């Protein structure tokens, strides 16, 4: 027997319509590429998004066709999020930190029709424009006065001209909620990048879950500043969450240094922020060097790579900002787990509580997870057994765009490529990425633990632990370290620092000091590059 409830498709446009109608005066504040601060309300943003939707229609963008962006976090990018998906086309957020060859490859693979870009990316656009195969027009996200006087780019249009040329009389179309809404490519640290094609339904369900108190916990009383880029898994869904709950949104544009971020946090009364650990490192260094604090910030969401306990301590103990450690990936929209504590963990002594918080956390409702051994058999949730993490749920990828890489699922589960433990309370902890695991004498050593210990040393700015070849053990851990400016520390000091903090056989065999550790387009350490760099490293224990 069928139920008798309304059949209303879950569509992205409804989020903006809701924000406009119920939180119309709430502000969206952006630091623009030009450096100035721009303010508008959800009401104005809604109107402009509808004008833009009319412009897209006039440009002949059909249902399901891809519209690309190369843009920082800002109000125009947000307008595109809604105008493109809302009108039935697919928003494809390109990552401007990729090599131009990769951008061309991805744009061709996605068959992008139009590309909207922030002016700071004009040189990149000029490099790729003659090479991309399907893009008909390039739209500079600026007003007429700032349009480049001369550019080699053919079909260069002005964003504000497009908005001005159309009125806001546009009715968001109603269609199947399983229709594609947006497209993100994985960063492709191994092999070609693969596209993950989200649907309106998956995005809406993800938004409901992300907004929950034990998810990213956002409300109408919050002012949210996503540092995580809108070109990186939809800024972890925050542009959708903010509209659903009516939070004020603050966008930092390209200014992601500690000083600029801190100024914006304070000036706009930001209560919640989100980003990868490398961004927070810069912010904390600035705040500490200038003896500053946070007067409104209550919480920061940290994910993308493991948040070292030393960073958690700095935020929570020195600045009274709670850290919410979260885990996810492009393939899961991205939220999988968030580390909000249960009463039992809240009651623990401070050190144990910190240890609990350092885990990647519990699944948000909608995601199911398990860990499996090499034979595929499920492992116990005892906090000890570690194996590959598999997930499933309505916002988890079922297959990659254009079927790239074949069927990724194993019996209906998506293998994440992460190695993890799960404890009896359901708290998951990533010990490593499968491809970064160090295998010593057949036993796995988790590099994240080793890095976290090094990062707790006062002289260490950055640390990465990789496998180095060993004649007896096959692989042994090699610690690669960037020192803090003017800090004095020796190899012996650091090796001694591991004593009593970890099983002796996990202690790295060697330490090398470098000026910089290579970071990828999403701010993560590129361990494959480090392994290449140190492939001939001879360990003193060899
Ligand atoms: P890519 O896989 O292309 O780097 P993603 O942004 O999708 O891009 O990265 C997802 C991966 O990032 C996860 O599989 C995991 O390895 C890592 N990751 C994300 N959040 C965390 C976290 N809180 N702790 C440890 N690793 C994390």
CATH-level-2 architecture of the largest domain: 3-Layer(aba) Sandwich
Question: Can you list the ligands bound to this structure?
Answer: adenosine-5'-diphosphate
Helical residue percent band: 25-40%
**CATH fold category name of the largest domain:** Rossmann fold
Radius of gyration using CA atoms only: 23 Å
Shape: globular
Q: Major sheet, described briefly?
A: 9 strands, mixed
Biggest sheet, spatial arrangement of strands: 2-1-11-10-12-13-14-15-16
DSSP E strands, number? 25
Give the helix tally.
17
Strand percent estimate: 15-25%
Instruction: Extract low-pLDDT stretches.
Output: none
Supply the helix-strand structural class. Answer: alpha/beta
Tally of domains: 3
Q: What is the average of the pLDDT values?
A: 95
CATH superfamily of the largest domain, by name, is ANL, N-terminal domain
Distance between the termini: 70 Å
Protein name: Fatty-acid--CoA ligase
InterPro entries: AMP-bd_C (IPR025110), AMP-bd_C_sf (IPR045851), AMP-binding_CS (IPR020845), AMP-dep_synth/lig_dom (IPR000873), ANL_N_sf (IPR042099)
Domain AMP-dependent synthetase/ligase: 18-401
Keywords: Fatty acid metabolism, Ligase, Lipid metabolism
């Amino acid at each position: 027997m069928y139920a008798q409830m309304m059949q209303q498709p879950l569509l992205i446009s409804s989020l903006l319509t809701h924000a406009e109608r119920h939180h119309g005066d709430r502000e969206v504040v952006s630091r623009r590429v030009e450096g100035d601060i721009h303010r508008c309300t959800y009401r104005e943003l809604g109107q402009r998004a509808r004008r833009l939707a009319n412009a897209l229609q006039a440009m002949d963008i059909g249902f399901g066709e891809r519209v690309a962006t190369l843009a920082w976090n800002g109000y125009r990018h947000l307008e595109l999020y809604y105008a493109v998906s809302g009108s039935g086309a697919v928003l494809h957020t390109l990552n401007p930190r990729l090599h131009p060859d990769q951008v061309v490859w991805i744009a061709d693979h996605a068959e992008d029709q139009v590309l909207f870009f922030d002016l700071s990316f004009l040189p990149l656009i000029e490099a790729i424009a003659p090479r991309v195969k399907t893009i008909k027009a390039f739209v500079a996200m600026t007003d007429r006065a700032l349009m480049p006087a001369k550019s080699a780019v053919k079909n260069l249009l002005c964003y504000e001209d497009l908005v001005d040329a159309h009125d806001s009389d546009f009715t968001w179309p109603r269609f199947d909620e399983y229709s594609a809404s947006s497209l993100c490519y994985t960063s492709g640290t191994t092999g070609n990048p693969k596209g993950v094609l989200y649907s309106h339904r998956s995005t809406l369900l993800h938004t409901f879950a992300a907004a929950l108190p034990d998810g990213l916990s956002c409300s109408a009383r919050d002012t949210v500043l996503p540092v995580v880029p809108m070109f990186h898994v939809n800024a972890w869904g925050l542009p959708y969450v903010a509209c659903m709950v009516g939070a004020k949104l603050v966008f930092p544009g390209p200014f992601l240094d500690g000083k600029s971020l801190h100024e914006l946090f304070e000036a706009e009364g930001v209560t919640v922020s989100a980003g990868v650990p490398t961004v927070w490192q810069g912010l904390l260094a600035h705040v500490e060097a200038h003896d500053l604090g946070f007067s409104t910030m209550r919480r920061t969401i940290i994910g993308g790579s493991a948040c070292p306990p030393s960073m958690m301590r700095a935020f929570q103990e020195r600045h009274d900002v709670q850290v919410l450690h979260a885990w996810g990936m492009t393939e899961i929209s991205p939220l999988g787990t968030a580390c909000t504590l249960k009463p039992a963990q809240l009651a623990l002594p401070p050190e144990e509580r910190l240890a609990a918080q350092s885990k990647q956390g519990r699944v948000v409702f909608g995601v199911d997870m398990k860990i499996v051994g090499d034979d595929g058999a499920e492992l116990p949730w005892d906090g000890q057994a570690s194996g590959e993490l598999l997930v499933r749920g309505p916002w988890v990828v079922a297959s990659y765009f254009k079927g790239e890489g074949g069927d990724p699922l194993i019996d209906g589960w998506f293998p994440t490529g992460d190695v993890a433990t799960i404890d009896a309370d359901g708290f998951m902890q990533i010990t490593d990425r499968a491809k970064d695991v160090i295998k010593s004498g057949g036993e796995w050593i988790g590099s994240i633990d080793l890095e976290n210990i090094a990062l707790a040393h006062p002289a260490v700015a950055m640390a990465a632990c990789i496998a180095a070849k060993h004649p007896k053990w096959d692989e042994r851990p090699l610690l690669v370290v960037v020192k803090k400016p003017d800090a004095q520390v020796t190899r012996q000091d650091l090796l001694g620092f591991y004593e009593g903090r970890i099983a002796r056989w996990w202690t790295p065999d060697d330490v090398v000091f470098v000026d910089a550790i290579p970071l990828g387009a999403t701010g993560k350490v590129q361990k494959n590059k480090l392994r290449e760099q140190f492939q001939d490293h001879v360990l003193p224990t060899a």
